[in-house]
Design a protein that fits this description.
Its EC number is 4.1.3.40. The protein is of the alpha+beta class. About 20% of the residues lie in helices and about 30% in strands. It has six helices and seven strands; from the N terminus they run αβααβαββαβαββ.
């Protein structure tokens, strides 16, 4: 039971064996290494709607800032809902350090209502051989990310499963957290 309690309040690496603690219905979503947008669109048979909740510079919490080995205090934060037929399926929060959006990575600043995956998984992008670091968590009222998301999306369930992945776009880090809503399972 203590092991399960630890999973509720912290992020755990997918490759550490913690994935089996997640409900079976969420395991394939939490562990998938491809584009989440493409996976959802293949399941629902239509393009997703991207609703931008926030796209601005802000301070990071300490949990997020540990991914960036620099003393980054402010980053661009982009929060979106991925919806089908106006029903939210996923909420995504992307942390984009200034250094990660400069030079040839400038396209991450001009996403508008396009999903970030359109840039991260573009066919022309050179994919790193290294597998991106992925963590999963059971999120609830005690989670900083859950509290942040609740401020932007009031219909957040009391408990949700999420994953976060540290991607690299041309060698520059981007942290993407995705919270899965139960409506995704009924697609």
């Amino acid at each position: 039971m203590a092991h399960r309690r630890r999973l509720r309040s912290s992020w755990n690496r997918v490759d550490s064996g913690e994935l089996h603690q997640a409900p079976r219905k969420w395991q394939s979503w939490l562990s998938d290494t491809g584009s989440l947008t493409q996976k959802i669109e293949s399941v629902i048979g239509q393009k997703l709607e991207v609703v931008v909740l926030r796209d601005c510079r802000q301070n990071l919490n300490s949990d997020e800032s540990r991914y960036f080995h620099l003393k980054i205090q402010r980053c661009r934060v982009r929060e979106v809902l991925l919806c089908a037929n106006n029903i939210p399926l996923v909420m995504a929060r992307s942390i984009i350090p200034s250094s990660s959006s400069s030079g040839s990575n400038h396209q991450v600043l001009r996403l508008g209502c396009k999903p970030l995956g359109a840039v991260l998984f573009a066919k022309s992008r050179t994919h790193s051989k290294a597998k991106p670091m992925r963590e999963i968590a059971r999120l609830d009222q005690r989670s900083a990310l859950w509290k942040t998301c609740l401020q932007r999306y009031e219909s957040l369930p009391s408990v949700a499963w999420g994953r976060r992945t540290l991607y690299h776009l041309k060698g520059k880090p981007l942290l993407v957290s995705e919270i899965f809503f139960s409506s995704l399972l009924s697609c």
